[in-house]
Amino acid sequence: MSLIVTGTIGIDTVETPSGSAQEIPGGSCAYFAAAASCYTPTRVVAAVGDDWPSQHRALLESFSGIDLSGLEVRNGSSTFRWGGKYLDNMNDRETLFTDLGVLEEAPPSIPEKFQDSEIVFLANTHPGVQRGFLERLPERKFTVADTMDLWINIARDDLMTLLSEIDGLIINDSEALLLTDRRNPFTAANAIMDMGPKVVVIKKGEHGAVLVTPDGVAILPAYPADDVMVVDPTGCGDSFAGGMMGWIASHGSWDFADLQTAMAWGTISASFTLGAFALEGLQGLSMEQLEERMAKYQAAAKVGHSSAIPTS
Ligand code: AMP
C-alpha cells in the first residue's frame, strides 16, 4: 500500500555525551522517511527554505526509496532549525532552540500523484497543519500521527481535534504525561483512546514501547543495545515510526498481531539511528542488515512469545 509522510525537514544542532554536531540534516519527516524507505517506497511532503544545504538534499536523494516530489524549496524562507542537548542518561533531552522558519508559513501542497495515498503518517509538526493534510488525502485507510511537548503546550485545541480524526498516535512517555496528566503509560494510553485514536503507542526510550488498543495490550522491549554504541538518539522516535509504518504499508494490514510485528521492526530501525549523528546510521542500510538485527532481537527478547496480554 502507498505510504506518505508529512512533517519537518530541518537543520539540527545536537549535543550528546558522545560529542556534538552542528547544522546536520534532521527533521521528523527526514528520519521517518529514511527508516520507512527500507521497507517500502515513501512519499515525502515538506517545505524548506533556500538556506537548505545542497548536501542535505543529496543525502535524502541517496535513499532510493524516498520520493521527494512533494518537497518544496521556498525562496526567501528559512528552513526549520532545532537544537537539542541530551543528558548523561541519553534518554532525556533539553530543547535548546526551535526556529520555526518555513513552518510559520502556509503548509506545503500535496502533489496530485500523492493524493491516492493509503497509509498516512503525520510526523511532528503543528497539529493544525497535520489536520489540513488529512482533508487532502481522501483515500487514506490508516492514519497515525506523532506530536511533542511544544505542540501540546501551544496548540492543544488543534491537537485535540486532530486526535478525534486519526486512527493512531505514537508518543513518548513524557509527552503522554503532559497530554493526559497520567504517569502510568497504560492509564495514559486509555485516556488518549478516549480522545480518539484506537491505536496508541507510548515510547519509553531504552525501556521499549507499549501498544494499547481495544484488542489488547503489548509491551515491546527496546533493542538490547549492548552491540550498538549510543552516539545520538535524535530521530529514534521518528525512525521507530518509520520502521513501523513502512512495514505496515509493505504488509498491507494492521491487526493487533501485525501492529506488534510492525513495532518490532520500528525498534530495529531506531536501533540503527542511535549509532551515529543525523541520518548516518540509516544510510545504505539493507534489508539483510535489518533482518540480521531482528534475529538477534528476537533471540534476546523472545518477541512474540510473552509480550501480548489480551484485555478481554
Ligand atoms: P525525535 O528524536 O524522534 O523526537 O526527533 C527529533 C527530530 O525532530 C529532530 O531532527 C528535529 O529537527 C525534529 N523536531 C524537533 N522539534 C520539533 C517540532 N517541534 N516539530 C517538528 N519537528 C521537530
Structure, described:
The strands form 2 sheets. The protein has a 10-stranded mixed sheet with strand order 5-4-1-8-9-10-11-12-13-14, with helices on both faces. Strand 4 (42-49), helix 2 (54-61) and strand 5 form a beta-alpha-beta unit. Helix 3 packs parallel to helix 5 (156-163), helix 6 (173-180) crosses helix 7 (185-195) and helix 9 packs across helix 10 (287-301). The longest helix is centred in the C-terminal third of the chain and has 18 residues, at 256-273. It has 312 residues and is an alpha/beta fold. The protein contains 10 helices and 14 strands. It has a single domain (3-299), classed as UDP-N-acetylmuramoyl-L-alanine:D-glutamate ligase (3-Layer(aba) Sandwich). Residues 8, 10, 12, 26-28, 31, 82, 98, 124-125, 148, 150, 234-238 line the site of adenosine monophosphate. Adenosine monophosphate (AMP) is lined by residues 8, 10, 12, 26-28, 31, 82, 98, 124-125, 148, 150, 234-238.
